[in-house]
Design goal:
By secondary structure, the chain is an all-beta fold. Helices cover about 0% and strands about 55% of the residues. Strands 1, 2, 3, 4, 5, 6, 7, 8, 9, 10, 11, 12, 13 and 14 form a 14-stranded mixed sheet that branches. Strand 19 (about 245-255) and strand 20 form a beta hairpin. It starts with 7 loop residues before the first strand and ends with a strand.
């Protein structure tokens, strides 16, 4: 999911001892590989903390929100609010979640769950989510009397862990990026018709150039920057909120929920701020 803060004027009082600016926060989600029968991944964010001058401080003007992460894919986002923060350099924001940490807490935390197509649901356990929270990492600057737009990408694909007894755990992986400095990759797998759309699925993972290691294939591509599900009808996919630079794109095939192999690797795909990079992928090459 992505948190966004908007750029513009206003948001601070230059006469105060501590100048402030405004962080306008939104959220987006990298699609998870949980199976087609999963229709919702619901979480409740009950608090935002920021790290400044060596201390964690509550953002007092944040209003708790509950939402389905699967509504926030392919560049979509939800606005979480505007928060007045001290001017300065930031590298982390912490998200506090209302979620059960054990079975006894499920009834008192009903909003954190995974829902299936048949209408049933399972609790989504978030160890320490309400107490210590989860960090989103990435550098940004709050300027006095101004707003900055920051996107926090909540990578559900990496963050949801299914245990051997089908217990769902959420261990969030969150990255922060200054929205106005980010770009998008819009791509198409041109030979998608060669796949069995009733059983096959494709996911495109983005890596900073020269950072991909084939050994990661057996561990859910943990060092990827982002991931996008391929639409098996038209082959289209989107990788949004990427920082400027060159990327390697890894296209992986899945049979149901099972990883079947890497079917394509594209090198040196350039992303520029404020722009969309178009990429065609042919997995038969």
């Amino acid at each position: 999911m992505t948190l966004i803060s908007g750029c513009g004027g206003g948001g601070g009082d230059s006469t105060t001892a501590t100048p402030t600016g405004t962080l306008s926060l939104s959220m987006t989600d990298t699609p998870p590989q949980l199976g087609e029968d999963v229709t919702e991944v619901n979480i409740a964010v009950i608090g935002i903390e920021y790290h400044h001058d060596g201390n964690w401080t509550n953002a007092e003007d944040f209003e708790p929100q509950t939402f389905n992460l699967l509504d926030l894919q392919n560049g979509k986002s939800i606005h979480l609010g505007d928060m007045i923060l001290p001017a300065g350099h930031y590298t982390e924001i912490r998200f506090k979640l209302a979620a059960p940490t054990k079975e006894a807490e499920v009834k008192s935390n009903p909003d954190c769950n995974i829902t299936f197509a048949d209408g049933t649901s399972e609790p989504l356990f978030v160890p320490s989510g309400g107490q210590s929270g989860y960090k989103g990492k990435g550098a940004f600057e709050i300027t006095a009397n101004a707003k900055i737009e920051v996107t926090a990408d909540f990578d559900v694909h990496k963050s949801v862990v299914v245990t051997g007894n089908r217990k769902y755990l959420l261990k969030p992986v969150i990255r922060l990026v200054v929205t106005e400095l980010s770009g998008t990759i819009n791509g198409t797998v041109v030979d998608v018709a060669d796949y069995n759309t009733s059983s096959d699925s494709l996911v495109v993972y983005s890596y900073k150039s020269e950072s991909y290691d084939a050994a990661e294939e057996d561990n859910n591509f943990p060092n990827s920057v982002s991931a996008g599900d391929v639409n098996m009808s038209d082959g289209n996919f989107t990788l949004a909120f990427l920082g400027e630079g060159n990327y390697t794109l890894i296209t992986a095939q899945y049979l149901g929920d099972t990883f079947a192999g890497v079917v394509d690797q594209e090198e040196n795909v350039e992303v520029l701020k404020g722009q969309s990079t178009l990429v065609d992928i042919n997995t038969s090459n």
